[in-house]
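Render this sequence as a predicted structure.
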Amino acid sequence: MADVVALVDDLFFQSKMLETAKQVGVELRACSTVDALAAEISGGAPKLIVVDLNASGNPIEALRRAQSIGRDIPLLAYLSHVQTELAESARAAGCREVMARSKFTRDLATILSRAKSEQS
């Protein structure tokens, strides 16, 4: 099982996340669809689930499905900072941390490293 599982369908950003994960020594599995994310997390317990709230499909459903698995896996979502209603929907779906995409991008290495340290 990967340390971090992410729902991200933007291929350029997916590449950035995978490269950053490699640099900090974290195994990251990027999923392009809600179903792929659900399948990935049903097979094991990652240390962190990351959801791009601007991904196609229904990323709020991804959060709900992650919560329904019943494990206490931290959920982190990111979005445009002006999407306050979407952020509230993510929190209502069980997301512990919602942040602006700019902050997520800036802190990506730290976020991934934090997931790595939780496995120790």
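Summary. The first helix runs from residue 11 to 24. Residues 14 and 53 are 14 Å apart (CA to CA).
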